[in-house]
Automatic annotation (TrEMBL), chain A:
<dbReference type="GO" id="GO:0005886">
    <property type="term" value="C:plasma membrane"/>
</dbReference>
<dbReference type="InterPro" id="IPR003594">
    <property type="entry name" value="HATPase_dom"/>
</dbReference>
<keyword id="KW-0808">Transferase</keyword>
<feature type="domain" description="HAMP">
    <location>
        <begin position="192"/>
        <end position="244"/>
    </location>
</feature>
<dbReference type="Pfam" id="PF00672">
    <property type="entry name" value="HAMP"/>
</dbReference>
<feature type="transmembrane region" description="Helical">
    <location>
        <begin position="167"/>
        <end position="190"/>
    </location>
</feature>
<feature type="domain" description="Histidine kinase">
    <location>
        <begin position="252"/>
        <end position="460"/>
    </location>
</feature>
<keyword id="KW-0472">Membrane</keyword>
<dbReference type="InterPro" id="IPR003661">
    <property type="entry name" value="HisK_dim/P_dom"/>
</dbReference>
From TrEMBL, chain B:
<dbReference type="InterPro" id="IPR011006">
    <property type="entry name" value="CheY-like_superfamily"/>
</dbReference>
<keyword id="KW-0805">Transcription regulation</keyword>
<dbReference type="GO" id="GO:0032993">
    <property type="term" value="C:protein-DNA complex"/>
</dbReference>
<keyword id="KW-0597">Phosphoprotein</keyword>
<keyword id="KW-0902">Two-component regulatory system</keyword>
<keyword id="KW-0804">Transcription</keyword>
<dbReference type="InterPro" id="IPR036388">
    <property type="entry name" value="WH-like_DNA-bd_sf"/>
</dbReference>
<dbReference type="Pfam" id="PF00486">
    <property type="entry name" value="Trans_reg_C"/>
</dbReference>
<dbReference type="Pfam" id="PF00072">
    <property type="entry name" value="Response_reg"/>
</dbReference>
Amino acid sequence: MPTVSPRRAGLLQRQLPMTWRVAIAFAAMSMAITGLLAVVTWHLASSYLLSRREQGATTQAAVDAHLVQEVLRDPRRNWPVDLIQGLAGGGDVTVALRRQGTWTVSGPAQDVPALPAELLALAGSGTPARQRVVAAGQPVLAVALPVEGGVYVEVAPLSGLDSSLRFLSAVLAAGVGVSGLLGLGLGSWAGRRALRPLTELRDAAARMAAGDLDARLPEQDDADLAPLAATFNRTADDLQWRVQRDARFAGDVSHELRSPLTTLVNAVAILRRRRDELTPTAQQAVDLLDADVHRFRTMVSDLLEISRDERIDESDLEECDMVDVVTHAVGARPGIVVDVATTPPKVLADRRRLDRVVENLLDNAAHHGGGAVRVGVSPSSDGVRVEVDDAGPGIPVELRKEVFERFSRGGIAGRREDTGGTGLGLALVARHVRAHHGRVRIEESPFGGARVVVEIPRGTT
Amino acid sequence: MTSIPRPARSAPVRCAAGGTTAPGARTRVLVVDDDGRIRQALSLALDDEGFAVSTASSGEEAMTLLARDPVDTVLLDLMLPGTDGLTVCRRLRARGDLPIIIVTARSESAEVIAGLEAGADDYVSKPVVAGELAARIRALVRRRRPDTAAATLTIGDVEVRPDEGVVRCHRDGGTADVHLTRTEFRLLVELAVAGGKVVTREDLLRRVWDYDYLGDTRLLDVHIRRLRCKIERDPDHPALVLTVRGSGYRAAVRADADG
């Protein structure tokens, strides 16, 4: 069984947005460069300081050794203990002299005899030598010089140097940190800037997904981005064309159906006129034909209307009095009470569509609710409200949205043959109401059936 | 809208004030449609409704037929091969006030308005049903007979004689006959008879077109525009046929001119 394994992207790549990844890459890069510089700087500075220190210590040791030599050569003084103590002088340098296997040590207790034997051996054999060693946990520089009949040793601590170097490294580390932060900031800025076209792309795609098929990306000057924008726009064009084509299809079909329908309708009209000349069977056939040709015709015109552009042409808007619309629609239909409350405001609307809305609601009540019993017109919060009540079976709560779908039969199968409706009436109502930015819903009628409530906002007058 | 073609005032008027139908004779209808089956079905059904039907399959054929055999009404499909319906409509209108009903593919604004501005008196949308069409034709043919007893009506400097079907403009020291189609004439008479009172759009549609209000005010608005182009000094600033916003139209009375 084939399994689809997710692409193994790095954790960073998978979880962080692109801007952050770019920012982090910038920060890492800048830290790497400044870190390298810092390491080099630290090395150069520390070796320079160290060599200066060594040089100083060595020179000092040489001068001191010379003094010791002088004393040693002077026959009047045979043991330069005072001198050794004087040279150490309470400082942090330890001075030691080995003569005839005996150590004379002065200064901070340094375990001078424990110094590397090679160093001492080298000095003993007449070669000045120095070595960095760790004594008692402290980095020290030991300088061993040959003197008359012995070895003169000075051990100088390097700890002072160490603190300078620590300060230097702290400064360098801080520099690396700051450069990392700057890199992060720069990277996030650059990332956002570079991704701005992507943000536009995302917004355009979101608009498109929300149904705005006119969403397009602006033309891009950038050679890298131009193809992306062009591709997106081309895809959008294509999509829009397809959507429109699909939407037009029903319209085109209905359009084409009208020529044969004209022939049908008129031929049936001739037959109907001659109904009395026909045999009873043929009469029944003509009646059936007549009824269904009529329904066919209504369906085709409803389909045409529903596949039309929903937007209302500015020139079709006029100030409409809903009371007029309702009174006119109710017109010849018997048994409907028109109930007008106070003075409902006039609305700026397409009168043809308002007529259609009210007609369809009355038709719907006639087909499914035994006919409308009351039509109410009243002011709503932002315009006018129309209520169409019937005394039929009503519409269950769970179907109240569904009945506004095309060809929805309100879930009541088998009623189709009785109703004579096209299944598009309420869908058209919903569409026309939506085109006017209005609302339509179904409630329970106090007469026991369904109440369809349509609210049309006043519009801008 | 200044592009509305005005018929030349000197054009020969073939059907002036009412056609040539003898009383009791069948109203003659020319059906122009390129679909043979539709022509046949409409012929049969209109014949059933009591009309004398002739047919043409193209604009050219229609013009030839009309030159030879006058009719009372033309039913003109706007989608025709060759010379299109709008052109045919304009040519027919330029030749006289023969009533024209156009057949539009859709009842959307643009096509209907284009057809009405080309001079059509009325329109029907596909599919055309003979029964409804018959009512329109009858209304249109009847249109030349306004039901008023007055011999002369006046709106501003325009004089209307309903019986004779004459409209005269007394303007700039002279008198000129204005040639109106019967729809425009009937509209003007309806407004003049009301004597300055508002006539609602619904009433005008019902009285002139015999429409039980269909909510289609384009029909009315286009004809009012055409009427204004013919009788107003400045059609963009009408002084004779006034719009009453949200309600209808009214003819100007003396008080309007004085005020």
